[in-house]
Amino acid sequence: MARPWHSLYPEGVPYEFELPNLSIYEILERSALDYPTRIAFIFGDEELTYAELKLSCDRFASALYKRGFRKGDRMAVMLPNSLEYIIAYFAIQRLGGTMVQTSVMYQASELTHLLRDSEPKWLICRQDQMTKLEQTGFIEQLMIITVNKVKECQSNFHRLIRETNIDLPPIVINPRVDVAILQYTGGTTGKPKGAMLTHFNLVSNAFHNQAFYAVQNNSEVIVGNSPLFHAAGLLMLNFATLVAATYLVVEKFNVATVFELIKKHSPTLFIGVPTMYINLLQSADLKENDLKCLKICTSGTAPMPVQVLEQFEKKSGAMILENYGMTEALVTHRNPFSHKRKIGSIGIPLPNMDCKIVDLETGTEEMPPGTSGELIMKGPQVMKGYWKNEEETKRTIRDGWLYTGDIGMMDKDGYFFIVGRKKDLIIASGYNIYPVEVEEVLYQHPVVMEACVFGVPDSYRGETVKAVIVPKHGTSVTSKEMISWCKERLATYKVPRFVEFRESLPKTKVGKILRHQLVEEERIKQGSQ
């Protein structure tokens, strides 16, 4: 069925194409065969070619197999961005296991929930995480493999890789059925849920990205900023492997480290979130030509302020392509790499995807272009379901359509825009206010570095608008000045009634501002008054 956005596809990109029925390990196997000497990953002073990476993965998989790891077993991996993470990931996929993504930032209570819910038999972590694990009470139930932070102190992880006798079973994986990853959601609406992502989900997304980026195999260098234990980072790992790119592994985003990598390796692709671009632009280390090597930059997880996008593109000469994705469906929309992009839009659906904007009440009536409603979608990237949670799966996936909970709008040309979350919508005196509208105006102020807008209770209006702002270093502004700024640019009912200034905002591991945490802090504060 023809859709409005199909006319916007880059030349040579089909609306639909037959996706190969490959496992995740098989995309590594293909790149290792075709480009054995290509540098696959660089981490500090360490490098691995594709042939060396496959050999390390096979050795580690063989060692796991000898110790009883079998297809369908679950292994929790709690490692920062590192070569060990990458080796473990592909080794688990080689054996048909399921990798349970585990944030290194989890504390004992969060770990307890994840381990109880996912029921892994195995766990890989750094030695310094053992204290937290002991507090969960699960340590006796797990086969634990440790990684030492200091390479000279060889851990049992590295000893396993050194086993040279590779003895592996045949690859018996059904990509459309077998769950490769349990990716836990952020838990903003309760306890985190484990999204079951199949090999087909993940490999399809890699092929879609290859088509939309129009990259050449064996030619790209990617800055890997996002945590690999987050879906955004994992997707770029798969994409990089598919196209035999060189992936610069960044353990934790740091402006100085990123600038050093850019100067040394001249990357062509930069994968980031708005806060990363803001920090790079604000850095005193930024020189005139530092960013000129970049060809494509992407931004996701939160709307990119227009001012930031324009400043970064002017400095780099690269295009920032905004995209959209979620744990349950990976990346589903991208702006095309051409003059057809629209700033502020999440772009258009990727091949093989169908999307609708439906009414917020019933979720059944498709809304016309220019009208907001809930974004729903179907396609090869949509998860299999939530692990051990049929009720929530049925609520989220209906008749094959994934209900995102995001309020969106499709314009007459077929571009999609996200205007807020259903739960973030502010209703003041009957008017709908989307936080992103107000934030966009705040970001236009020369003093504002970061901003977050949300609703607070109001006895008269039901709700009213509050803004929390982080000013740029060395600047100052008053609440009265910010409110006046908004009055000149927004309808009266959208203007913040309260403005708070902070030195920083709470964020997720990938830099997304945690609006719900600010809302909760406000609720507690209101309750104590």
UniProtKB/TrEMBL annotation:
Domain of life: Bacteria
Record CDD domains: FC-FACS_FadD_like (cd05936)
PROSITE patterns reported in the protein's UniProt record: AMP_BINDING
Span of domain AMP-dependent synthetase/ligase: 28-387
AMP-binding enzyme C-terminal domain residues: 437-512
Gene3D superfamilies: 3.30.300.30, N-terminal domain of ligase-like (3.40.50.12780)
GO molecular function, one term: ligase activity
Family matches, as InterPro entries: AMP-bd_C, AMP-bd_C_sf, AMP-binding_CS, AMP-dep_synth/lig_dom, ANL_N_sf, ATP-dep_AMP-bd_enzyme
UniProt keyword list: Ligase
A Pfam family that the UniProt record links to this protein: AMP-binding_C
Protein name: Long-chain fatty acid--CoA ligase
